[in-house]
Design a protein that fits this description.
Blueprint: E1 6-10, E2 13-19, E3 26-30, H1 44-53, E4 58-62, H2 81-95, E5 100-104, H3 109-118, E6 123-129, H4 145-155, H5 160-165, H6 173-186, H7 189-199, E7 215-218
Parallel strand pairs: 3-4, 3-5, 5-6, 6-7
Antiparallel strand pairs: 1-2, 2-4
Helix pairs in contact: 2-3, 4-7
Length: 232
């Protein structure tokens, strides 16, 4: 269903990506903080959704620089929002794609918004999945950002994090083990902590008004990690 992992050049960095067969449009899934495109499309929790999405167009999974199968930063410096947005351009150029619909997950809104604002001719639309624009907004569940990151890191690599984030999803040992493996291949616990701190500082509120592409935000009411009010 999906291609072998390929690499596109973003400056000196190689960006890993996989695609489905060609379709009427290109759809880029911008991952939530971390991903591993070698594993993600085949996870039992994702496979059905990914296959359904291929009926709408060519689906592209990529790993942003610093995570998954993509290059890390040689100097040890943290990636920037601009470099993440450029990762998408690198993949589209490698595929010879003129434009794409962007699907931005939790924590990826700023990346998608910056891409849409700076590359309007290559953005067919922006769809946000359980996203938030301002990560510094006060939470109503009593958790502060440091407590949230500490809780996530304590569960990293066990698979249990997905069950906390998606309490209504089907759950068994096979599903847990699949997510555990994905998380370990996407980032180490230390990298996860650093990248979540970085993502928690990415404010999209100033970028979103400058985009030209249409935007839709789909936000479930029972999302524990991102309360519905954060998506407004």
């Amino acid at each position: 269903m999906f291609s072998e992992t390929r690499y596109a050049l973003n400056g000196d960095l190689r960006i890993a990506y996989r695609t489905s067969r060609e379709g009427p449009r290109d759809i880029v899934f911008i991952p939530t903080w971390f991903s591993n495109c070698e594993v993600l499309p085949e996870l039992p929790s994702v496979q059905g959704w990914a296959e359904a999405m291929t009926s709408l167009g060519r689906v592209i999974f990529l790993d942003l620089s610093g995570t998954g199968a993509s290059d890390s930063f040689m100097s040890g410096a943290l990636p920037t929002l601009e470099q993440w947005a450029d990762s998408i351009i690198a993949v589209l150029d490698d595929l010879g794609s003129r434009e794409a619909v962007l699907l931005a997950g939790v924590g990826a809104v700023a990346t998608g918004a910056l891409f849409a604002a700076t590359h309007p001719s290559r953005t067919a639309g922006l769809v946000v999945l359980e996203g938030f624009a301002d990560p510094t907004a006060e939470r109503t569940d009593g958790l502060d950002s440091e407590e949230l990151i500490a809780a996530i890191v304590s569960m990293w690599g066990t698979g249990e994090l997905q069950h906390v984030w998606n309490p209504d999803m089907p759950w068994n040992e096979e599903i847990r083990a699949g997510w555990a493996r994905h998380d370990r291949l996407a980032a180490s616990p230390g990298t996860a902590a650093v990248m979540m701190t970085l993502a928690g500082e990415l404010d999209a509120t100033t970028v979103l008004p400058t985009r030209r592409a249409s935007m839709n935000n789909s936000h479930p009411t029972n999302a524990p990690s991102t309360p519905p009010e954060s998506g407004k």
